[in-house]
Amino acid sequence: MKSTLANGTFGGKTGIASPRCIGAERKMIVSLEKKTGFIVVENLVDGRPDAEICRLFGTHILPTSWTRPTRLEYVQYQLQHLNPDVDVVIAGRNEFGYRPTF
Q: Which residues pair with 67 in a beta bridge?
């Protein structure tokens, strides 16, 4: 499969998405890495680690340039803007954006 990276810049932040996989469900899960204070993104294709991202970076979990005081919703919005073909979600929240209460 020939790969092309979708790059974009918005507000000084850079976004990278793996090659478009026709018919595949691509997802980015946004979370806070408590040890470092950086917000990280887990890149998945059909529920598995994104092979192209792993090949390029050695892992499917990548740090962003955003840190602890930044709201996860803001990062989600920016990443969704930069990667319109990817479902960007916040870790631990349902499809409506809420944490389960049970």
A: 38
Q: Which long-range contacts (CB under 8 A, 24 or more apart) does 50-58 make?
A: 50/18, 50/26, 52/3, 52/18, 52/19, 53/18, 56/18
Q: Would you call 16 helix, strand, or coil by DSSP?
A: strand
Cβ–Cβ under 8 Å, residues 31 and 39: yes
- Is the CB of residue 8 less than 8 Å from the CB of residue 14? yes
- Catalogue the E-assigned strands of the chain: 6-10, 13-17, 26-32, 38-45, 48-49, 61-67, 87-90
DSSP letter assigned to residue 97: S
What would you measure as the largest C-alpha separation in the chain, in angstroms? 44
Residue pLDDT, tens place only, 48-98: 999 999 999 999 999 999 998 999 999 999 999 999 999 999 998 766 555
Record the pTM: 0.69
Residues forming a β-bridge with 6: 17
